[in-house]
Structures are given as C-alpha cells and as structure tokens.
Amino acid sequence: MLLSKQIQRPKLVLVVDDQEINRDVLGVILEDDYEIIYAENGAQALEEIEKNVDRLSIVLLDLMMPVMDGFEVLSRVTSDEQLSHIPVIVLTAEKNAELRALQMGASDFITKPFDVPEVILARVARIIELSEGRQLISAAEHDRLTLLYNRSFFFEYANRLYHYSPDLPMDAVVMNIEQFHTINAVNGREFGDDVLRVIGEEIREFLSEVNGIAGRFEADHFDIYCEQQGDYQALLDRFQKKVNGISPNVSIHLRMGVKPWQEGVEPIVLFDGAWAACSMVRGDYQNPLMIYDEDMRQRELMNQRLLNDLRSAVDKKQLTVYYQPKYDIQCDPPRLASAEALIRWKHPDLGMISPGNFVPLFEGNGLISVVDTFVWRETAGQIARWKEKYGFELSVSVNLSRTELFDPTLVDRLAQLIEANGLNFKDLKLEVTESAYTDKANDLLEVVRDLRQLGFEIEMDDFGSGYSSLNMLSAMPIDVLKMDMKFVRNIESSETDLRLVKLILDIARYLKLRVVAEGVETEGQLKLLKDAGCDLVQGYYFSRPVPPEDFEKLIEREMAIERGSSI
Ligand code: C2E
Ligand code: MG
Ligand code: MG
Q: Is the separation of the CB atoms in 133 and 140 below 8 Å?
C-alpha cells in the first residue's frame, strides 16, 4: 500500500521567479503533473533546494532576480556535490543568457515569454527523465575524451539556440587535424587521444571566454558554434600553439573552416559550409584557414554541376585523352621514350576544363573511377593502334588515383585490359601519386606490389610533394621516381634547389630508380638536369600534352631522326 502511494506521489518541481505572474503561469501549466513549490529570489531558492534535496526532481530558475540572481544559484547548485544531481532549466528573456547558462551546467532553457504549455511540459519531462538515468545519459550526451557534445546533442542545442535567438550572430567553425589517422598509426592511439583531449580542453577554455557550444564527432572533427569572432587566424593559431606543445617529436597540423552567421540560415547549413571550407584547405599547410565566402559558394555550385554532368560526359564523348611525351635526355639528341596520358574534358558550356578542377573533386566521392576507367581503356587502345601503325615500341603511363587502389578488382581489370588489347605489361605504365604511399601505407603497398609482380612498371608521381621520407623509398615497390615540378621550377636561380635535385638524383641512383623530371620548361633547366644525370624529362620545353593526332607528329619526327642516324 505504502509502495503504491510512493509511486503515485507526483514529482517535485521548484519554480523560482521574482514575478508573480510568471510563477502563476508555470504553476498552471505544471500543476496537473507535478507537485510544485515556489521561491521568489535566489536566496529563497537555495533554501528550498537544500531542504528538499532528496525529493526535488527539477528546478525552473529565472536568471534575473533581486537578492541573488539565477546565475549565482546555478553556480552553487552545479558546484555542490550534494546538489549537482538536480537538473536546472533556466527561464530567460535575454538572448545571450541561455548560452552562458548552458555552459555553467544548466540542462536546458525555456525562453520568456513562455512557449506553448505542451513544449514546456515536454521539456521538463524530458530533462527529469534524462537526469534519472544520468550516468547513462551524460555518457551519451558528451564525448568522454574531450567532454564536448556528441553530434546529435550538439545540433539539438545549436538548433535550439538558433530558433530562440535567430538574430544572435553565431558563426560555424569546423576544425580538423591533418592526417590524423597517420598520427594515430605512427604514434599510437593513446597519443592520438592526448591530442584530441588537449584540443577539447582548449575549446572549453575558449568557450569560457565567449558564448558558444562545441562538439566532437568522427575522431578529429570539431564543431564550434560561437559568437562571431573578429580574427579566426588568431583563434586557429591559439589551438595550433597548444598542439605544438604536446610533443617535440611529432608535428601536428590543424586546419579550420568558418562559415559566418547569415540571417535565416540554420546551423546545420552553416556547418555544411564550414565543413566544405575546412575540406578545401586539406593538406594546405601554408594556409590552413578558410572562411566560406562568395567565391567558395560559386565553386561549390560549379562542383555540383560537374558532378551532375560527368556521367553523360562519357556517353557524349566530351572526355578525351591527351598525351605528353617524356624524353630520354641522356641521348643526343634527346629521344622520345614514352608518354603520359592526361584526361581532358571538353564541356559544351564551360569549355576545356583542366583535370586540376575535377580530378580532386571526383577523388573525393569515388567518381574518379569513371574517369580513370575511360582513360585506361582509351590509352590501351591507342597504344595498340600506334604499335600497329608504326611498329614503334612506345609505352604510355596512366594515372592511378589513390581511391582506385582500394578497389579489390583493380588488378584484374588492368590485367584484362592488357590482354584484350594484345599488349605487354611494360606497354602501360602506372603512375601512383606519392601521397597514396603515405596514406594507409600497408594495404596500398600490397596492391602496388601485386601490380608490379604482374609486370607493370610503377612510377611514383609528384615525388616530393608529400611526406614520404627518403629512407622509406627503399622499401617501396617502384621503378621510377617522377620528381615534382616544384623542384625543377627554380633550379636556374636557386643554388639550394639545384642541390636538392642533385641529392634526389643521387639517392635514386643508389636505389636503382630512374628519375623523370616534371615541368621542364626551359633549355637552361634541361641542361642542368642533364648534367646532374637525370634520365627522363617531361615538360612544355618538349611539348604540352596534345591530342593523339598531334602526338603522331612527334612519333613521326622521332622515326625520321632514327632513320637519319642509322644511315
Ligand atoms: P600529373 O600526373 O603530375 O601530370 C602532370 C601535369 O603537369 C599535367 O597537368 C601537365 O599538363 C602538367 N605539366 C606538364 N609539363 C608542364 C610544364 O612544363 N609546366 C607546367 N606548369 N605544367 C606542366 P594536367 O594535365 O592539368 O593534370 C593535372 C593532374 O591531374 C595530373 O598531374 C594528375 O595528377 C591528374 N590527372 C590528369 N589526368 C588524370 C587521369 O586520367 N586520372 C587521374 N586519376 N588523374 C589525372
Ligand atoms: Mg601523372
Ligand atoms: Mg606528376
């Protein structure tokens, strides 16, 4: 009997407000479901809380009150071990106050003038429910490592703030760690956790100074919804400085994207923009901050368009392959040795689009395989046709995207292509960008090893643009190094650059790798490279990438020279 009476006893709610009308309104809304006690100021509220500490289910707390204001009450409740289990919903009419209250540990807020009764009832019920399962819930609500919100709570609070204070200028800030998986893989998960924890601490420190909330999701993805800041570079520097202090042996690079507040734009949309801005500076260690602006919006629209247009581009024959020769410069005169196949998109409205504008975009979503498959097939066919037409052995390299290496059918597809066109494996070379080797290295290395075992020659593309250390080279399955063009660009004017090129050539020689210098544009560059012992050169000096019919002229010229020299 006693038990059932206890079960039926309504939960106790304390309503604290200095204005009688507010107390009355809340009383009317809550009285059917709860037992209510009242206080008119902070001091009275504390008395009631202490008196009813074992029974009190929730406090609805006005912030602006005489004698002792709500913030003071809130801070005493949340910092007192005996009281801190009691959830507090703050009642506020002030735009900034709800954020500050959330940061101080309030569970939720209700704005004045009051919402419709159903909303208030639902909110009170929900917070009581949450607090009764507190252990469980706080784990679900917060990320344990950084004590920031998880995704659903973060966006729930962000939305609520937005709907209650749509005029409050709040920016979306996204922060990410470059190559976080590599940091984890090389230094261990514990170290990775330390990095996340330090960033979390600094974000919480920052949010104790300005209004805002923050969350962490997907390992190293931090979202901060904060009042507009004047200088985001300074903010990023602040976090960067903090992570620099973690270990003298590991360099950690942060990047940041910001989408500024815009009237009528919901947080989720703002964060999409901030995320896109943050992705835009991925790998750009010189400029790791991007503020979403009109340029970016245009670029996004363009990207969307290219994504939509790609499928039909293949059918409508808008994609073509250009070929750029590679010359062996240790012969005199230099000899046409091979070529690289490079994609070109002739768009009916946008004109010729360079691969720099769409390859990275399609790499991000897997569509690159549409491009690559097209180029491989086209190139294999072209090699076969040239072989037949000229009886001339000319190998051509194709680019292999990083994402392609994850495709379990890759090795079979390429082998089939060779067979179907009656080629040798040596006829089609594969260029794999250096960054593919540093990313998830082991899995990818296996695939490259398999390809090489079959007989394909592997060229490491853009060597020097990524982070593979020279001593990793010896263990990598490659035949040729393609030295990134940034090394060649200044060798005529910079003694240091020239020395660097010579060093790379020495190491390559030691490892028995041939070297292709990319981006050679002048005779001076060519001569320096030749003297330094570089084997092959690709660049505008010899020819830009050209359509197959123009490339045939290069082949024919080459054959004429050979005939001449053999007479
Ligand atoms: P990459 O593989 O390093 O190709 C060399 C790029 O350097 C080409 O740019 C070429 O036109 C350019 N280049 C060659 N010589 C010179 C020179 O003397 N000076 C300068 N400034 N540039 C020179 P392109 O054709 O715009 O291609 C850019 C990148 O797009 C390629 O870099 C490659 O990473 C990617 N790409 C091109 N075609 C394909 C493809 O079919 N599949 C994939 N996955 N990526 C491709
Ligand atoms: Mg290439
Ligand atoms: Mg390259």
A: no
